[in-house]
Amino acid sequence: MDKFDRKFWRRLWTLTKPYWVSEERGRALTLLIVLLLIGGGTIALGVWATYIVRGLMTALSTKHAKAFYRDLFIFLGYVVAVVPVFAYYPYLQGKLGIAWREWVTRQFLEKSFAGRAFYRINQSGKVDNPDQRVADDINTFTFRTTGFVLDGMNSLVSAASYFVVLWLISRELALVMLAYVAVGTWVTVAIGRRLIKINFDQQRYQADFRFGLVHVRDNAESIAMYGGEEHETHQLMRRFASVVKNFNLLILWQRNLGFFTSAYSNLPMVLPYLLLAGAYFAGKIQFGEMSQASIAFGTLQSSLSLVVNEFQQIADYTAVVNRLALFWEECNQPEQPESAGLPVVEVETAPEVAAQALTLMTPDYGRTLIRELSFEVPPERSLLISGRSGAGKTSLMRAIAGLWTSGSGRIMRPELDDIMFLPQRPYMSLGSLREQLCYPAMDASEEELGRVLKAVNLENLPARVGGLDAEMDWQSVLSLGEQQRLAFARLLLRSPRYAFLDEATSSLDEGNEELLYRHLQRSPITYASVGHRSTLRKYHEQVLELDGETGWRMIPNRDYLAIAAG
What is the pTM for the complete model shown? Predict the structure, then answer.
């Protein structure tokens, strides 16, 4: 077994084990045992059915009418017995699969949000299309794992049962069957191994193409404004070309595998008759035994040929396991890059925000943005962070939030529950207007919500959209300026100790901007703003100016205004 196989089995165990030792293992094991018992019962009934068919065929060949009709009625009883078994089996298998999927989905979501792993994964780019992995790959993993386990267990029981039937009829035929399956499995794996990587790539290219389509949908207005339809068409077709190219490779190797598997699957239809024909013509066995041997041979071949018959699904399943495992491994990566021997910014809990000898670098450590920065923002004071584009203003915000740790030095700040960050483009969550205002987790009365909406000049918004419980695509319904005012309403409602505003009023007119900052000045919130507008200066007591070449200076606002006027 090569390195790839060992890695796959290790990943499969990592993904599979947690559910079966979790608090839900009792229900899961009960369903699994019931399914195995039903499967075993079905196999037993199937073996019994071969003897019924044997009697039917023998009665026909000897023209024994009474025996024929007796066995026929017995066979009808067999049909009645297996109907509820066949109906309940997929139902219970579906219940087990969806319970497992629900549990795994919850684990992945919790893990991806713990320690801001979702942000780190998105920034690293190592895991493409994590949404697809949660929505589609978990579904495929849980249901196919359940199916493969049940099919594998049933195949072993079925193979043992029908091998005994075949052995009692012809030992030679039973041994031929074992050799036939062994050779067939080896050849299938040898031919089809290439399909594993091709399936992995196909899912990745499909997801990239779908991501491009979603990107166009989310930015339809901007594309229309720019007249970028031709460019977007070219970009989408370039992604789709990868889908087509890989798909052609996929069906080529499926064809190559199909040449063998088609012959492998059809030969057992005549092989038992070929091997037993001499014994039958010599009168050593009855016609019914030949029919029973044919059924047993075909069923045994199918039971032992799980790899051959399901290789395409196994190849696809292998790709899914590797995609999910990579996502899980990235979620479990340490939040800090200390293990790689790289310097990191230390973040400490303190009553107020400050920085000491802070050197901030890009996440890849390729460029230094700010060097040896020291400042503090005492309670109920305000700070304006200015500088040209690319100087590191927003990066400093990210460092304070703990999102960027590449660099050295120290940042002191209160716990994140006492801080609120307002980005230039506010996040509009899925849900009602009430949930937008209370995001991420606040309780407020309708009077409080009405008060903050009035404070930000959005008092008419509930009436306009159908009330506080109306659910809409807020990013499309509200202008960027309205979204920024809604974000300020969240800030006023939550009233944290510190607030950091990154171009948070860039889409507002000066009147609304002044209104919002006057509310901040009257509140107990200590705030710092990133911004280019000269109008922001009068709302801040000190200015941190970044020169864009790692340098900086801290100046009182009165001096800054004098410099700007001069």
Answer: 0.64
